[in-house]
Amino acid sequence: MSTGQDSGTPMDTSAIGGCAPEAAICARGIVRDFESGQTTIRVLHGIDTDIKPGEMTYVVGESGSGKTTLISIMCGILWPTEGEVRVFGTDIYSLSDSELVNFRLNNIGFIFQQYNLIPSIDAAANAAVPLIAQGMEIEEAREKAKVLLDKLNIGDQADKLPSQLSGGQQQRVAIARALVHEPRLVVCDEPTAALDANSGRRVMDLLREVAVAKDRACIIVTHDNRIFDLADRILVLEDGEVTHDGTEMPEDH
Amino acid sequence: MLWIAIRMLTGDAQKFYGLLFGIAFSTLLITQQLTIFVNLIERGASGVYNAPEAEIWVMDPVSRTTDVNYAMPSTALDEVRSVPGVEWAVPHLRAAASVRTGSGDLEGVAIIGVDDATLIGLPERLVEGDKKILAQPDTVIIDDGGVVNLFENGEDPIGQRLELNDQRAVIRGVADSIPSFTSQVTLYTKYSQALNFVPGTRNRLTFVLAGVSEGLTADEVAARIEEQTGLKAETREEFADAGVNFIIENTGIPTNFGITVVLGFVVGVAIVGLTFSLFIRDNIKQFGALKAIGVTNAKIVRMVGAQAALVGTVGYALGVIGTVAFIYAFSGNPFFKGFYIPWQIPLISLVSVIIILAITGFIALRSVLSTEPAAVFR
């Protein structure tokens, strides 16, 4: 229920529902319960938080702290039991199913921990998937994706299948896929979990370079303490509650 | 997205070919077995088809098919000829006999006695010899399937002597005829000659074949014959159907072929269902990712539909081509002589394939549609 002790630039919270007008994400009273047999487990306990554009925000916490549940709710792929989420001013859970799917397609980019690339299409086509899903012609979408792959220094791998790429190259393809349709919100799940310290830092530098923009928010879920110093803002979750919201990790972590 | 769906499927060669095999095998089994079944039971009407001139078949009321018959008194011929609307009527004898070949083998044969004057009752075409040759004493014409059965070592049948009911018969022609249901050797001869070949019984006229006067239909004339003579008269089509129905009703063939066709369907469902489910399971993360990115369930359904359509089209085509190749490859075998694929059979196979893919696609889709997009973060 904490909204910050050390929250960087103060936000104007006078807008509707206490949301700052410039907030990329405004979450209010987020509760999420999961049923397990006869038992109901409350994973999130009424979280209020805002995510600002132009920042790389980390959501950190131990396994089971609720960080994955929180970002799933923030990006519109998991319904909260209670609460409201506004993404760039849109109350996403008041949208119909199809409107919400379209909202995700047009506004959110995802980078999954296991990349989840389609194994039988090449890197360019994988990166172009959101554009193809939007209805763009395949060749046009591939060309646009190739430009981004070039920017990510794997333009020469555009015609290769994921199985022909190294783990790092696959991750870059996944990054390209998350950004190719120029979303306003980028969500990354444990981007450095499978990488050594140096590779992890390089990926985070790359993400900062391509995913952070003044009109775009970037949320990264991680428990990799080797990269905490690269965050603009860190939200710490413990047992479904935000226990810290600041520019640095608290001393006791 | 359909392009991606197709690439997802074809990129997994093992499962793609597994699915193709399942559909092709199922199609082949269903199409081939139904083809053999239909052609086989149609042979119950081969006796009718081999006498193309006859528009009406007149018989004793208890007779059921060309092979299951009861002879009538010879006066029946005159009775039929006296019915108004009967243009012509000729005697037709069908009986079973045993022949001893030159090499001493014994073989059961069907003797068909055709009208001496007009030769009505003889197949339309001869492979060897001329119909007029029947005028020569002791002459028989053997059916082409019978040649293979009777002369397995490839001897020329022409001029071969047979012993029939202690009498000499000489083969002087080979008829191009549709084999009977049992592929029994058939010997055609003149009616008067057949009476000598077949052991004597009081009545030996098994059928009267009749033609219809101009302006009347076969149905009308057949009804008149029945009314006036008390005999059973059936049109060519009715009697052909009776032969087919007799086999359907009195043999286990429909059940046996039916079981094989059902097995083909079940095998198709099993192979395709299992492979499709494995394919979907292997790609569930990718489908989950697509759903999270913003691909609607409707698009996912269309993607799986496109995959099913591709597998169905190619697999079905392979199965039908396989059946055609099978029929073509065995066309030289007398058992398969004249086999064809009625258009209804590929249609039945197509419907079966669609049902197989609908069932398996639905089962596979359920897991995709029920996958929460959030599962990709777990």
Automatic annotation (TrEMBL), chain B:
MacB-like periplasmic core domain boundaries: 54-227
**Which coarse location class describes where this protein primarily resides?**
membrane
Against InterPro entries, the record matches this protein to: ABC-4/HrtB_transporter, ABC3_permease_C, MacB_PCD
Q: Where in the numbering of this chain does the ABC3 transporter permease C-terminal domain appear? A: 260-373
Q: Which residues cross the membrane?
A: 16-41, 257-280, 308-331, 343-365
Enumerate the Pfam families for this protein: FtsX, MacB_PCD
Kindly list the places in or outside the cell where this protein is found, as annotated in its UniProt entry. Cell membrane
Q: How does it sit in the membrane?
A: Multi-pass membrane protein
Q: What is this protein called?
A: ABC transporter permease
- Organism whose genome encodes this protein: Erythrobacter rubeus
For this protein's source organism, the top of the classification is: Bacteria, Pseudomonadati, Pseudomonadota, Alphaproteobacteria, Sphingomonadales
